[in-house]
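Structure first, sequence second, as always.
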């Protein structure tokens, strides 16, 4: 996975929209009592807990030690495992894999799909949502323009934002039959008013921020805000132009 430095406290306090939007995806998962379910990229564990409330036996998995530590403290009765989605295995297969807002952080997408497919039983469900083609394009463009204006090299944040066809083909190649796939816009207001976009870069835009010398960081963020303000600041709140890819598949 990409080397983002996760702040579990900032995630919960200022970016709760990540797991709040994930609740809608749970209706497609439809967890049943007694099922074994793997929550890939569980973060601080809130959706893992919601799955467990169905009576399913759920394991939360995340690559971030900070996220796993926070999840274990919040939900000590649940099982949480620190592991990389491109290199993991379990002894017993799962009835379903669920993942919300995680897989766009995985540049080695095919390795992740191989591991997830191997972790599912035959007939097992695969229910995921993450950033799709064009995700946050306005914010990314503003960041890249700002780097150029400051005389700094361009940055490729390394996110994986596939099209429907690209990801569906990848799943099919590895034995996951796609039943439903859609790409849709989800303009998302950020918390904390006019501070919201800076919080977003602190949480998710580390690749850009790390590329800027410390003495230039305030100017970089001001310039990003200047470029994005006309279309993305509404009634005192920043809006990120998220575009999500939602997929339901089944292991053949």
């Amino acid at each position: 996975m990409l080397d983002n430095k996760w702040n579990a406290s900032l995630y919960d306090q200022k970016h709760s929209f990540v797991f709040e939007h994930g609740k809608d995806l749970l209706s497609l998962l439809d967890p049943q009592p007694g099922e074994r379910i793997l929550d890939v990229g569980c973060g601080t564990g809130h959706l893992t807990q919601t799955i467990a409330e169905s009576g399913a036996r759920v394991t939360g998995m995340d690559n971030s030690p900070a996220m796993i530590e926070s999840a274990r403290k919040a939900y000590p009765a649940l099982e949480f495992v620190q592991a990389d989605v491109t290199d993991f295995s379990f002894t017993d297969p799962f009835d379903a894999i669920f993942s919300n807002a995680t897989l766009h952080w995985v540049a080695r997408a095919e390795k992740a799909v191989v591991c997830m497919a191997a972790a599912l039983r035959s007939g097992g469900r695969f229910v995921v949502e993450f950033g799709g083609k064009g995700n946050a394009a306005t914010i990314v463009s503003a960041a890249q323009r700002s780097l150029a204006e400051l005389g700094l090299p361009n940055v490729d944040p390394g996110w994986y934002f596939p099209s429907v066809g690209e990801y569906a083909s990848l799943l099919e190649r590895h034995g996951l039959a796609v039943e439903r796939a859609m790409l849709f816009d989800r303009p998302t207001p950020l918390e904390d008013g006019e501070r919201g976009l800076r919080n977003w870069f602190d949480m998710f835009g580390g690749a850009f921020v790390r590329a800027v010398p410390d003495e230039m960081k305030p100017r970089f963020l001001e310039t990003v805000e200047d470029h994005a303000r006309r279309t993305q600041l509404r009634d005192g709140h920043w809006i990120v132009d998220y575009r999500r890819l939602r997929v339901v598949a089944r292991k053949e």
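Margin note: Residues 217-232 form the longest helix (16 residues).
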